[in-house]
From TrEMBL:
Name of the protein this chain belongs to: Prophage PSPPH02, adenine modification methytransferase
GO terms classed as biological process: DNA restriction-modification system; methylation; mismatch repair
UniProt keyword Glycoprotein present: no
Keyword Membrane attributed: no
Length: 163
């Protein structure tokens, strides 16, 4: 069982131990509103066919980059610092000016440092109850997600088209 790679507003991380046992046996699992994909990452046994879908293009880009370009993604954080100033600079950076890997790194940085995992209008926040974000351990933390995403179809469709 793995952890979701980003915090997500409305995520099911805390309910996973109650929800996953309710899943009926199945051959295909389609998450039409993937979000942070807590149930996907925390399921002990993957389905033979799995699909993650979300309408948020930045989120989908993050999953695709972790799936296909983890090493280069991790390299984006080699000299990165956790700071309010860098957070604000990342917010000001226009995603359309970035490569997919840079865009995924920007989105990941903002989600890791945003108070309450807010996607729209995020504010820098730190928790007094847990450790600070450790950008040096990204590869270690994401290697399980990279393995879990292998063979998963990742879509960026309206939910009706995906379902």
């Amino acid at each position: 069982m793995h952890s979701p790679i980003i915090p997500w507003m409305g995520g099911k991380r805390r309910q996973a131990d109650r929800l996953i046992p309710l899943f009926p046996p199945h051959e295909c699992c389609v998450e039409v509103f993937a979000g942070g994909a807590a149930l996907f990452f925390m399921r002990p046994q993957p389905a033979p066919v799995e699909v993650l879908n979300d309408i948020n293009g930045d989120l989908v880009t993050l999953y695709r980059v972790v799936q296909n370009h983890l090493e280069e993604f991790v390299r984006q954080f080699k000299w990165a610092l956790s700071s309010r100033q860098i957070f604000e600079w990342q917010k000001l950076t226009r995603p359309e000016t970035l490569t997919d890997i840079q865009r995924a790194a920007r989105f990941f940085y903002l989600q890791q440092h945003a108070f309450g995992a807010k996607v729209s209008s995020p504010t820098f926040g730190t928790a007094a109850t847990g450790p600070a974000v450790n950008l040096l351990r990204i590869e270690e933390n994401l290697s399980a997600a990279w393995q879990r995403l292998a063979g998963t179809y990742i879509e960026n469709l309206p939910w009706l088209e995906c379902a």
